[in-house]
Amino acid sequence: MAIRSLSYHDHTDEELLPLVANKAAGAFDELYHRYGQRLFGYFFRMLWKDKEKAEDNVQELFLKVIQHANSFETGRSFSTWLYSIAHNMCKNEYRKQEIRMKHAKTITASPVVAKEKNLDLQKFRIAVANCIGRLDEEKRSLFVLRFQEQLSVPQISSIMHIPEGTIKSRLFYLLKEMKNELQEFKTLHIYP
Amino acid sequence: MQAEDIIQQKEWHLLTDAERELLQPLAADEQEFNLLKKMLLLAEEDAAAVPAIDPNIQRRLQDSLQGKNQPSKRRWYYAAAIALAIGVGAAYLIQNRKDEPIAHEIPRLERNQKEITPGTEKNQPLVITPPVQETIVKTPEKKDVIVPKVIPPDTYVQTPVQPPIDTIKTNPPPYASINTMLKNDSALMAFVAEAY
Hints:
The complex is a heterodimer of chains A (192) and B (196).
Chain A: H1 2-6, H2 13-21, H3 25-46, H4 51-67, H5 78-104, H6 119-134, H7 137-148, H8 153-160, H9 164-181
Helix pairs in contact in A: 2-3, 3-4, 3-5, 4-5, 5-8
Chain B: H1 3-9, H2 17-23, H3 30-48, H4 56-66, H5 70-99, H6 176-184, H7 186-195
């Protein structure tokens, strides 16, 4: 599998996709190698750090890639296309979750954070995780895509189908909102 | 450069006046600036702390890539099999229909004894014998006649037998004895008359 994908190492994503459409296993492996773990991370962070749910979504997403490889618009960025599918899948998951929450009325969202020697830093880490966890679907998407997936504003604009100016403005207000929520940590000595 | 890029990439003391002005609504002082910087740094660290994806997923996806057209082929086979079964069933039903006629042959009328074959005998009168009609005569049912019982006239009135007059006893009126006693006692009568 590794040998096969080596031959596709120099191909761009957009070049690999038609090969995937022709059932080239190596081309698919290369694409999976590039985006599998990355998209799993995206789903994992977006979907309440639920590993199984994230894995299911990754599998479903790549199945869609296999099925619709022929319908990919040439000239468009593959990664943006992939993230826009993932973004829509997350939206669907949020809708399902919303329906479930209406019936269950219980929210069991505990942040999973790494243990820290510095207690203040540990508290701050938990507070940040809680803060992100409380964000609605749209804001969380924006935060994850921009600060965790490190995507650019034009890419996010293309994924979320929102103008770039709106993205910038929303990011600004999102940071302001989060800063206000974490005001109590302003004076703590948590900086290296 | 965006505000978040400045926060992530620069330190407070290295900011230009223009950058500080740009960041003013977001981070007015160094503490707020550092708070945002640390928050974004932690978010980045958090992004790196993601478990590894199950390697079986790649294998399963490879399988579906290789056998991608199998389900559709199977679907065609199933469709063809169903169509064939429907065809065979329809043919069988049609065949059965031919064996069993829908309407049975109408039985020949027996009342016409003479068979007429057209073209053999010209101007042959058609003899139609009227069907034998049965006349049903209904006789009224006999009803049982109740004959009245003849009773002799003597037995109609029965006169009560009168007892003989001598045997009738008349009961004496009440106070009769008292009355007689009073009539007999003249002194008492005189006293009563006097008192009255």
